[in-house]
Amino acid sequence: MKHVPWRMCVACRRRRPKGELLRILLTESGFQLDPSGKLPGRGAYVCPDNPECWTEKRLRRFAGGRAKALSEALSAFLGGKDGQNTHLPAG
């Protein structure tokens, strides 16, 4: 049986398999969304199927003063309020 790594969402603190979460990188130029989970650097994870996890208030713990920009980027990338997204890879 293959080992499945688990990660925690920075917004809701729920633990889930790594493949179910969206990775976010904090870079010098801002945030970078990493759907593949393979870009170099330290990242954090957020639930892509729970719009409550994309709110500015929930993201402040991780992003601080840049939480509003991150919230807007997540909403745009993940498809608004309904969480329906065709951009994320399955799996």
From TrEMBL:
The record's annotation in Pfam families points to: YlxR
User: What InterPro entries does the record tag this protein with?
Assistant: YlxR (IPR037465), YlxR-like_sf (IPR035931), YlxR_dom (IPR007393)
Q: Where is the YlxR domain?
A: 7-61
Q: Which PANTHER family match?
A: BLL0784 PROTEIN, YLXR DOMAIN-CONTAINING PROTEIN
Name this polypeptide is given: YlxR domain-containing protein
Source organism per entry reads Thermus arciformis
